[in-house]
Design a protein that fits this description.
Helix content: 25-40%
Number of strands: 15
Number of helices: 8
CATH class of the largest domain: Alpha Beta
Order of helices and strands: EEHEEHHEEHEHEEEEHEHEEEH
Bound molecules: pyridoxal-5'-phosphate
CATH topology of the largest domain: D-amino Acid Aminotransferase, Chain A, domain 2
Distance between the termini: 26 Å
CATH architecture of the largest domain: Alpha-Beta Barrel
Length: about 280
C-alpha cells in the first residue's frame, strides 16, 4: 500500500486527500501539528506526542474531541493499511473551514488530517561525518512552545542554512540559544549535558526529553538552563535532536570545527543508547 491519509475519519490514498481552500490552516496557518515516529511497527512515545498535541490545541483554543484511545485506534489502522513498519505519522489539526475572517468561526469543526509515510533513515554519512550548523537571529513569535503550523521563520532560516551549505540553523534570541528550525540542541562540556531550559521560546521536544532521561539514568550531569551563544563555541561536542533526525552530531558551527571536527564520543554513545530505546 502506498502512502495514505486519514481525513476527518476516513482513510484514502494520500493524493486523493484534499481540503477546502477556505480551510483556516491554508488561509492563516491556524492550526497545530505533531510528527510521531514508528519503529518496528511500534509508536515511539505516543503518549508524549499526544499530550503535546492536546496542549498545543488548548493553547490556541481548538477543541479536540478525539480521545487518546481513538487516536491510537485510528493510527493503528493507518499503520496496518500502510504496512510500513518504519513510518512517519503526521497529524495536523486546523480550526476548520470558514469564510476568511480573523475571528474564530462559531460553528466550524476542526479539520483533522493524518498522513502515514514510509520513514527512511537519514543518510549514514550525516551521522558518520556530523553536520554543519549556522546561527541566525530568532525572528519567531513569543510562543514557540506551541507546535503551530506557522513555520515561516523556521522555513526561511532552514533555507538560509541550506544556501550557506549547512544542515540546520540554530536560533539566537537576545544572545541566548533557543533551538534549531526543527530540532533541539544539546551541548556537551566536560561530559556534562547542557541544553536550553524549557520556556515559551522553544518546543519541548519529545526526543529532548528521552535523551535527557537517558543521560540522567546514565549518571551524567544534566543542566537545563539559559544557554549563551558563546557557550556553543566553547562546547566539546554539540548535537541536534528531533523525531526525524534522532541524535545527530554537529561538527561545524558557523564554519568552525566543533571539538576536533569529528562526531564526539559522548554524542556517539548517546546516539546508540537512543537507538536502542527506539527498539524496546
Ligand atoms: C522547532 C522544533 N524544535 C524542536 C523539535 C524537536 O521535537 P521532537 O523531538 O518532539 O521531534 C522540532 C521537531 O519538529 C521542532 O520543529
Amino acid at each position: 500500500m502506498p502512502n495514505i491519509a486519514w481525513l476527518n475519519g476516513k482513510f484514502l490514498p494520500l493524493e486523493e486527500a484534499t481540503v477546502s481552500i477556505e480551510d483556516r490552516g491554508f488561509q492563516f496557518g491556524d492550526g497545530i501539528y505533531e510528527v510521531i515516529r514508528v519503529y518496528g511497527g511500534k509508536l515511539f512515545r505516543f503518549d508524549e506526542h499526544l499530550s503535546r498535541l492536546a496542549q498545543s490545541a488548548q493553547a490556541i483554543s481548538i477543541p479536540l474531541t478525539i480521545e487518546a484511545k481513538e487516536w491510537k485506534a485510528f493510527i493503528r489502522e493507518g499503520l496496518e493499511r500502510s504496512t510500513y513498519s518504519a513510518c512517519k505519522v503526521y497529524i495536523q489539526v486546523t480550526r476548520g473551514v470558514a469564510p476568511r475572517e480573523h475571528l474564530f468561526p462559531e460553528t466550524t469543526r476542526p479539520t483533522i488530517v493524518m498522513t502515514f509515510r514510509e520513514m527512511a533513515d537519514l543518510p549514514t554519512q550525516l551521522n558518520q561525518q556530523g553536520v554543519s550548523v549556522i546561527t541566525l537571529p530568532d525572528l519567531r513569535w513569543a510562543r514557540c512552545s506551541i507546535k503551530s503550523l506557522n513555520l515561516l521563520p523556521n522555513i526561511l532560516a532552514k533555507q538560509q542554512a541550506n544556501e550557506a551549505g549547512a544542515f540546520e540553523a540554530l536560533f539566537i534570541k537576545d544572545g541566548m540559544v533557543t533551538e534549531g528550525t526543527s530540532s533541539n540542541v544539546i551541548l556537551v562540556k566536560d561530559e556534562a549535558f547542557l541544553t536550553p531550559a524549557l520556556s515559551e521560546q522553544l518546543l519541548a521536544g519529545v526526543t529532548r526529553q528521552a535523551v535527557l532521561e537517558l543521560a540522567r539514568n546514565d549518571g551524567k550531569v544534566v543542566e537545563e538552563r539559559p544557554v549563551k551563544e558563546e557557550e556553543l563555541k566553547q562546547a566539546d561536542e554539540l548535537f541536534l535532536i528531533g523525531t526525524t533526525i534522532e541524535v545527530l552530531p554537529i561538527t561545524k558551527l558557523n564554519g568552525a570545527s566543533v571539538g576536533n571536527g569529528t562526531p564526539g564520543e559522548v554524542t556517539k554513545q548517546m546516539r546508540e543508547k537512543f537507538q536502542a530505546l527506539t527498539q524496546v
